[in-house]
Predict the 3D structure of the following.
Amino acid sequence: MSDLTQLSAREIARKVATGEVSAREVTEASLARIEAVEPKVKALLTVMHEEALASADALDKRRSAGETLPPLAGVPIALKDNMCTRGTRTTAGSKILANFVPPYDATVVKRLRDAGAVIIAKANLDEFAMGSSTENSGFFTSCNPWDTERVPGGSSGGSAAAVSACEVPIALGSDTGGSIRQPAGFCGVLGLKPTYGRVSRYGLIAYASSLDQIGPFGRTAEDCALQLNAIAGHDPLDSTSADVPVPDYLASCNRDIKGLRVGVPKEFFGQGVSEEVASVVRTAIDKLTELGAIVVECSLPYTEYALAAYYIIAPAECSSNLARFDGVKYGHRTKELAGHIGLTEKSRDEGFGAEVKQRIMIGTYALSAGYYDAYYKRAQQVRTLIRQDYEQAFQKFDVLVTPVTPTPAFKAGEKADPFAMKLADVCTLPINMAGVPAISVPCGFVEGLPVGVQIIAPHFQEERLFQTAGAYLRATEWNKQFPSV
């Protein structure tokens, strides 16, 4: 493995800015690493060789001309393939969009380009971000770099696996019910879901619009902070993006946590969380105490209803969002034409996978006349109670700490029961329901497989996440271990 591929994004940007290494050399090292390990990891759907090298060469010319380079200059990055990239295929992991080439960049993509990042690949995902393992991808299942017989998590499994396997130092994913944090936990890297509205969703192919949020993966708190610095902030193209000032998140990573009030919600240590995972996470919490935090057990009583409410709200919004894929405007169109209605039915039947079809049907039923009040309205009322749980907790605590996943990564094909699969997100999806930010941080291993600890903060207080994660990682070595893939 090239030493360049094990460097952090911050180190790469510094070396490129000073001329110690060229952006082309970094990009070539990343492409070589992808070529070496991608047959085993299967993290990526599209590798952008020519575009990446052209971007790197342009940055090298700017440096040679004496220009001050932007903060992510020369850093290779992979994007989950549900973010539109102008001129490059964007599939959302679905056969219905297998040949879709967007005519524009998503806002986050534009902001990353402005920050100097070199977009090197589009990463695999569960189809339309619906899943917890990438087994629902319309193309292939990605593998966990720590054990290639196991899944990397989902739906942003390709992004997490690419960072874990050192194909790229950083990546972006999207998180609707845990789709950044859960694969980060499974793959032994950091993954952050920002506050809903903190990052623009313009150009993100929607799953559930009131829950989706784009966020970063990395090996260090600083690398995630650099990405969030680049992509956060109000966007007039997204009516749900918040007009809230963006601090310098990088500055928060070096603060200590003496006196930080940490709540540990007891509900997150039930719900199928294994004794081994709970033990590793409690050891991480003990480390926070050693570092000067004040740790107290607390309760979020409506947590037990989050899973049921989520799986009404998210499918309902998916039913609405995916109605646009009708075989007429863009995307897959059946060759077996049979009138307008037949065309739409056949195109959707051929283009969508089983999980997407199931969620569309559940959502359509929940929104139908006679059932809307019984299901969708009631789920939204429960969502309000969950949000109030967090608001009350944050009157007493600065952050909350929980497990990320109930178990370490499971084997591909192991969770054939759809309910068992959905339970993989039981620790993460309440955070989306509340709209608050959270980060997954590596905190140990169970039988050689990574385990993550989840840190949760109040709305628009991502600085507390970086403060806590940064302090914890300075005191441990979990994020500095690499899989042998």
